Amino acid sequence: MLTLIESLGRFVLAIPIWIGRISFLLYYCFRDLTRLFKGQYHWSLFRDIQRLTLKQVWFTGVQVLPLVSLVGITFSGSLIALGYLNLQSIGAEEFFGSFLRFGILMELGPLLIALMVIARSGTAMTADIASQTIRGETDILLVHGMSVHLLIIVPRLIAGCLSTLLLSVFF
User: CB 3.0 to 4.6 Å from 57: which of 45, 102, 135, 159, for a disulfide?
Assistant: First the structure.
């Protein structure tokens, strides 16, 4: 019983630390982006960030389109069949259109897209950043006076948000 309370306490106490780390990461990314737009970094760095972002959009958004299509057709088809049968059994077929609009397009679609992007691309991005750290690429960027957040985190963050938005529209 005591170990359950201890583990619950550790979890609860770890939440503010996690929120603080995410807040600092987002602050550093935003700070470096504003420095880039103010001209404190060379503009050729902007082209590199754009190239890296497009590469991540290709990986995060375009390559996952067949999976999104398959999952969307499967879940939508089963939800349509089950939803219509259940609504028909209680005599509420006239609500089927609003059920489809709210159930599939507004609720299920963005949720499934977010789960697929997190599961597929989030783990790959995390592994890529970890391998760059282990190989010392982040240290090389720091030695040369470049922003690690601007070159590694920001393109992935922008690409993940953009891909999730575009895939939700596609779904």
Answer: 159
